[in-house]
Design brief:
The complex is a heterotrimer of chains A (about 325), B (about 550) and C (about 300). By secondary structure, chain A is mainly alpha-helical. Chain A contains 15 helices and four strands. The radius of gyration of chain A is 25 Å and the shape is flat. Chain A starts with a strand and ends in a 6-residue tail after the last helix. Chain C folds into two domains: about 50 residues, no CATH class; about 220 residues, MetI-like fold (Orthogonal Bundle), CATH 1.10.3720.10. Chain C is an all-alpha fold and about 300 residues long. Classes of the chains: A mainly alpha (about 325), B alpha/beta (about 550), C mainly alpha (about 300). Chains in contact: A-B, A-C, B-C. Chains A and C meet through strand 2, helix 2, helix 5, helix 6 and helix 7 of A and helix 1, helix 4, helix 5, helix 6 and helix 8 of C.
Chain lengths: ~325, ~550, ~300
């Protein structure tokens, strides 16, 4: 049976009809051949280990290994949902994630746009080089820096506030300040590195476009809006969609190091909770439980990804699939 | 064509990589005589008649330059006739454990002997049926020579009990260090110079302590005209640096592990008692007056250290710690502090935290071991005194010497006699020993027998001489270890985690008044009940009884 | 409106615009540059000065003890060599696989393109965990070999999607149509036309993969036992002994204290040692982000 679908392409006028007829499949044989190697790779290295997810539904024991344990269905999920901390860690994880998304998403784009518009090559290159350096700071050192800087006594934060004669409110021990500290330090660290992709997209903009716009009398700002932003919009959309698919994946190391009894209300995340109950608490690693929680995270990620992708398809031309 | 050349060179690189990465065969020397017959009698050296190889898996120790050429390795190999090979795991303890867990779960062959992993009972019990860890009970009874000497010499009456798992088997050879300073680590240090400036004595009671702290805050003892003094601080997770752990001992005994208190064999917890609440009330009072630095709940040890090392002028009045080590780089400042003995509370209590002697599981034999008896005898040999000295101090004559009659002893305050003078600095890069990361028995005589060089500012001496102030101030009954079955551990683990974390969090919130000790106390108790506190205590009691009744 | 060609801004709004741009860039320079200067300075200061918080943006008590502590370890040189090896071979493999996947997926005229894209994206979301991956590597016989570092994680779907997006949006459809009319095969089009036009994105993913390899330690930590195969990061982590300890787990407080002191000393110099090579490489990659790659492609 023939299946026809229309696909509109951006930046052009032609419309290609896609049909599942044998001829078009044959015509693309070279493309399939190219795809073959990567496909084999992900089947072996991604899909085969993925079978291990069934451990979430089995009771792991040392004798039966990860495929032989007794089937327990949703026992571990129920255990997780019923846990006293469940609501708290879920809310905290989502809060941090969405906050990081809203705060962290625009800034690399802005930085790329600004860098691209700069006229002084020296300034441009210097800021570029400097801005991506923080990306290489390890988490431990990063947290050390945060604790140092925001110390009300000896840190930059405290010294600045005393210069301005303001009372130094302790942020490190404030539960309400934790998400901001966590997110903005992450933005600081990754802003420069994140702008690289956008710079690459911007470098592809033909100077003729700018020249034509200048002849039409557009100001530099207008050119930024209409040319530069258009150039990075596809990349930005795709990255936004993909980031939504990572929403539950807030790593544990940074939060764990920043935790203290006073901010635990907002700093206890799913990942730190898993670490505390799985590792330091005496057992040989409750793999089933950890796998179940991981699966829960993945499912939430998938749902959000699909939803956002659908929205993107409806409102624009760029989407993942 | 450029593209063709590109792909061709890729292909070549890939082929070269493939060929060079094929694993080299590891040579394993084989013995003609079968396992047990090859082993000599207990206590005899060498321990095998024909040389064998033993593969030891252990986390990498950064300080050790090279295990193969290490002096301790060489000495072991000479004495025992066993050739040692090493499989090194990541240096970070939890990473090494993770890797071991993955290897266990995937059925991968493990090294013949595992050292330095300190596996808890739960791991032994969970893997009991697969037999991956060898039960050493028979070996201990029939072939343990230095092992039995250790049982005789140890000061720990519970030593034998500590070696047994809930299923009655014994899976490891222990790491035992009986230095008295490790048993009473909960010290605190107060600035004597400031006390002198203010004309005050070292406080003995909680009331006096509060007065002193007030004087620190208001009396400008560092005499710089600014009220920048911080009377009392600590860190959120540094070893013995948690402020409320130290102060709580003036109200109720504070066992830092699980806050247990025991009376007449009945086990209970401290954190739901009125005394605990009184302790929190005292501390919250101090906090309201600005005498406890809020940073002590927030900062890590490094930040505390930075505070203590404040350039130009000292601003730290008092802090809990095992010793004033963090001030090592400023000896004159370190000399300003003296030990603050446990304060006597309003009910006359002045406890000191007792860290019960332990036996860490540093020597384990896996089922992949081809010569388990020889492996056992090797670890048995590691428990002898010469091994203990070499393991801690290094090569005799080079890294350490025997003490002379006239030498002074570090722990003279508790009547110890000098045994060894250390030359090689501890905890620097070396190739003389393995940092004692293996079964070892360092008896009290040896551990406390370090020679003192006479320098009153030697930080080890300072710690050692302060020791009598804290010794023997724990309740008669304390919890050494809980012996739990596998089911009990499974049930206990989530309870323990959530309860402990909740207590830690709430205690601090009560102190800084984010929770009110009158209005919110009952809610706090209610949450603890809801978390399963009763069951937690029951399970703990079961483990306590089982341990003591062995 | 007529405009003179040249470097002179023509209108007031443009002047304001460029001024704002410059101000913002300088702001970024300070916000990021000052803490980085602090790190540099700390790595060149004595441990004592760092611990007492004296260092700001210039070294206090100049000292190389931080660096010496790092290089005292014998294995650093092997670590560098191994990491260089893994980075070069790994990146070549990564980029090749990524391009081979990204290009076909950018062609919406290929039947099943959405299905394949979903297949790849799905792997970003679901992972079997450490044990299944370990079992896989073990059963492939890759444990404790260099392949265990290079093969797992060879395709980053994230990078692949970025590349696909680039292909889709930056290479005009007209080029393909023209080429197809001329009878050009997909292979030829890919190699001779699409790829040369994609230098910026190839540069970007090369950079991403290379840096990923440079910073990687997880595969080595899990799959390697042989010290001679260790990449730099494992050795550095072993030195730094990253560990926030539960008080109860401390078995040797004396050693713990000494290690904490050493870690404090090392942590800044470690950042520099680990990152310096990458900082040096970036300028070479950067030249591919030059404007105007597209000039002449339509006319040619």
């Amino acid at each position: 049976m023939l299946l026809r679908a229309s696909v509109k392409m951006k930046n052009n006028t032609s419309i290609i009809r896609k049909s599942f007829d044998f001829l078009s499949v044959l015509r693309c044989w070279q493309l399939y051949l190219m795809l073959l190697l990567p496909l084999i790779y992900i089947i072996i290295f991604a899909y085969i280990p993925m079978l291990g997810i069934q451990l979430a539904f089995r009771q792991y024991s040392a004798d039966s290994g990860i495929f032989g344990g007794q089937w327990v269905g949703f026992k571990y999920f129920v255990r997780f949902f019923k846990d006293y901390q469940f609501a708290r860690v879920l809310v905290n994880t989502l809060t941090i994630s969405f906050y990081a998304l809203f705060a962290g998403f625009p800034l690399p784009i802005l930085l790329a746009l600004i860098l691209n518009s700069a006229r002084s090559q020296i300034l441009k290159k210097t800021v570029q080089m400097v801005s991506y350096m923080p990306h290489f700071i390890s988490t431990v050192v990063m947290v050390g820096i945060i604790m140092q800087v925001f110390n009300t006594r000896i840190g930059l934060y405290g010294k600045l506030l005393s210069l301005l004669d303001l009372p130094a409110v302790d942020l490190l021990g404030k539960a309400s300040a934790f998400p901001s500290l966590y997110v903005w330090s992450g933005v600081w660290q990754n802003m420069g590195w994140g702008s690289i992709v956008y710079l690459a997209a911007l470098s592809n903009v033909s100077p003729e476009l700018h020249e034509a716009a200048m002849i039409d009398g557009a100001s530099r700002f207008k050119r930024l809006i209409h040319i530069d932003i258009q150039a990075i919009l596809p990349t930005a959309c795709i990255l936004l969609i993909m980031n939504c698919g990572q929403i539950m994946n807030v790593g544990f190391e940074k939060a764990f190091l920043m935790q203290n009894p006073l901010n635990l209300r907002t700093s206890e995340l799913i990942s730190t909770y898993v670490f505390k109950t799985g590792l330091t608490a005496g057992g040989g690693g409750d793999f089933s439980y950890a796998t179940a929680i991981g699966l829960f995270n993945s499912v939430i990620n998938l749902i959000l990804l699909v939803v956002v992708n659908q929205i993107a398809k409806k409102f624009g031309d760029t989407s993942l699939w | 064509m450029l593209k063709k050349r590109f792909f061709l060179s890729c292909l070549i690189i890939v082929m070269v990589v493939f060929m060079t990465s094929c694993q080299k065969d590891s040579s394993v020397s084989t013995t003609s005589q079968s396992g047990d017959e090859n082993v000599t009698a207990p206590g005899e050296l060498p321990i095998v008649k024909e040389k064998i190889t033993l593969n030891i898996g252990m986390p990498d120790i950064t300080e050790v330059i090279d295990f193969e050429t290490n002096a301790y390795t060489k000495w072991l190999e000479e004495q025992t006739g066993v050739d040692l090979e090493f499989t090194l795991f990541p240096a970070n303890a939890s990473e090494a454990r993770t890797k071991l867990d993955v290897m266990l779960a995937s059925g991968t062959e493990l090294p013949e002997v595992l050292m330095h992993f300190d596996l808890p009972d739960s791991v032994f019990l969970k893997n009991a049926s697969s037999g991956v860890f060898v039960d050493l009970s028979d070996y201990m009874d029939k072939y343990g020579y230095w092992f039995k000497k250790m049982l005789d010499e140890t000061i720990n009456p519970n030593m034998e009990k500590l070696l047994v798992s809930a299923n009655g088997k014994r899976y490891f050879m222990p790491y035992v260090v009986e230095q008295t300073g490790n048993f009473w680590p909960g010290k605190a240090w107060i600035n004597k110079k400031w006390l002198d400036v203010l004309g005050l004595d070292v406080p003995k009671t909680t009331e006096e302590f509060a007065t002193v702290l007030r004087a620190f805050k208001n009396g400008d003892p560092n005499q710089n005209g600014i009220a920048d003094e911080i009377p009392l601080s600590g860190s959120k997770n540094g070893y013995q640096q948690i402020v409320h752990h130290f102060l709580m001992n003036s109200f109720i005994y504070c066992d830092q592990n699980n806050y247990y208190i025991v009376e007449n064999g009945k086990l209970d917890v401290a954190f739901n008692k009125e005394e605990w609440r009184n302790g929190l009330r005292y501390m919250s009072g101090l906090f309201k007056e600005g005498l406890i630095d809020i940073q002590c709940f927030v900062q890590d040890s490094n930040s505390l250290k930075t505070l203590a090392l404040n350039p130009d002028v000292n601003i730290l009045g008092c802090f809990p710690a095992q010793g004033p080590d963090m001030l090592l780089s400023m000896p004159e400042r370190m000399a300003e502090y003296v030990a603050l003995p446990p304060l006597v509370g309003p009910e006359g209590k002045a406890y000191s935290f007792y860290r019960a002697p332990r036996a860490d599981s540093y020597g384990i034999i896996t089922k992949y071991c081809k010569n388990p008896l020889a492996a056992f005898r090797l670890m048995d040999f590691m428990l002898c005194e010469e091994s203990a000295l070499r393991a801690r101090y290094g090569v005799p004559g080079v890294d350490w010497e025997e003490a002379k009659e006239t030498d002074k002893c570090m722990f003279e305050s508790i009547g110890a006699k000098p045994v060894v003078r250390s030359i090689l600095p501890y905890a620097g890069t070396q190739n003389s020993h393995w940092q004692s990361m293996h079964p070892v028995f360092r008896s009290a005589a040896v551990s406390n027998g370090m020679v003192w060089n006479g320098d009153p500012l030697d930080v080890e001496y300072i710690k050692a001489s302060a020791l009598p102030l804290y010794m023997n101030k724990a309740p008669k009954e304390t919890v050494s270890k809980l012996l739990l079955t596998e089911e009990e551990i499974d049930e206990m683990t989530p309870l323990e985690t959530s309860i402990k974390n909740y207590v830690k969090e709430s205690s601090v919130m009560f102190i800084v008044s984010e929770k009110d000790l009158d209005a919110d106390w009952n809610a706090y108790l209610a949450v603890l009940d809801k978390m399963g506190l009763k069951r937690f205590i029951e399970l703990s009691q079961s483990g306590y009884d089982r341990f003591n009744n062995q | 409106m007529n405009r003179k060609k040249g470097t002179i801004a023509d209108s007031k709004s443009d002047l304001v615009f460029y001024m704002v741009v410059d101000i913002l860039l300088i702001l970024v320079l300070f916000l990021i540059g000052i803490p980085m200067l602090n790190i540099f300075a700390s790595s060149l200061s004595s441990g004592r000065a760092v611990a007492s918080g004296k260092v700001f943006i210039w070294p206090v008590e100049w000292s190389l003890e931080g660096y010496m502590a790092v290089f005292r370890n014998n294995n650093i040189l092997t670590g560098y060599y191994n990491t260089a090896f893994y980075t070069v071979t790994g990146t070549i493999l990564n980029v090749t696989l990524t391009l081979l996947a990204a290009y076909p997926l950018s062609r919406s005229d290929m039947p099943g393109v959405n299905l394949f894209t979903f297949l790849f994206t799905f792997t970003m979301l679901f992972n079997g965990g450490m044990i299944p991956n370990y079992l896989l590597v073990k059963s492939l016989g890759l444990l404790n070999t260099r392949w265990a570092i290079i093969l797992p994680g060879s395709i980053s779907v994230y990078n692949m999607i970025i590349t696909r997006t680039y292909f889709k949006s930056s290479i005009p459809k007209e080029l393909l149509e023209v080429a197809q009319i001329d009878g050009c095969s997909d292979f030829y089009y890919f190699l001779r036309i699409a790829l040369p036009l994609s230098k910026p994105i190839v540069a970007v993913i090369t950079l991403f993969y290379a840096v990923g390899h440079w910073n990687a330690f997880f595969n080595a930590f899990l799959y390697l036992n042989d010290k001679t195969l260790y990449p730099l990061q494992i050795i550095l982590r072993n030195i730094l002994l990253v560990n926030s300890m539960d008080s109860n787990m401390i078995i040797d407080p004396e050693l713990q204290m000494a290690r904490a002191n050493l870690a404090e000393l090392l942590k800044y110099s470690l950042i520099i040692v680990a990152s310096l090579p990458v900082w040096c490489i970036y300028p070479f990659v950067q030249k591919y982000f030059v404007k105007g790659i597209m000039i002449g492609s339509l006319k040619g």
